[in-house]
Design goal:
The chain has 5 helices and 2 strands; from the N terminus they run H-H-E-E-H-H-H. It is mainly alpha-helical. It has a two-stranded antiparallel ribbon. The two termini are 57 Å apart.
């Protein structure tokens, strides 16, 4: 049971497979004469071979971080808070550029520029 739980915690076994893994290991361990598995010159009990197989398996879900600094969903030409349009001419220019880029109505572009949702 502890082995199956450790595989689940490491994302090497889906939680739905816990009962099957426990039953498999119990069945393989309960034999009067232990089954052995040979690969090349190496011989080991089948229970240990199954455990080794699952322990060395690639995790089903990889929880490691994959983000790369400077890459992502941040627009290349986004403006900071201090760069928002402070005068009507700048606001108009930004709204027109957003309207052209995203094919949206002028009013929607102005609202997005004012709300800080999207910048040119």
């Amino acid at each position: 049971m502890a082995f199956a739980e450790s595989l689940i915690n490491e994302a090497r076994l889906a939680p739905a497979g816990q009962a099957v893994m426990v039953a498999l290991l119990d069945a393989l361990s309960g034999k009067e004469q232990a089954l052995t598995f040979s690969e090349g010159s190496k011989t080991q009990p089948l229970v240990d071979a199954v455990k080794s197989l699952f322990t060395s398996a690639t995790p089903l879900v990889d929880f490691s971080q994959r983000a790369v600094p400077g890459r992502g969903n941040t627009p290349q030409n986004s403006l900071t808070f201090s760069e928002r349009a402070s005068d009507p001419d700048t606001l108009h220019q930004q709204a027109m550029a957003l309207k052209a880029r995203e094919s949206i109505p002028y009013e929607a572009a102005v609202k997005r520029c004012l709300s800080g949702e999207s910048y040119v």
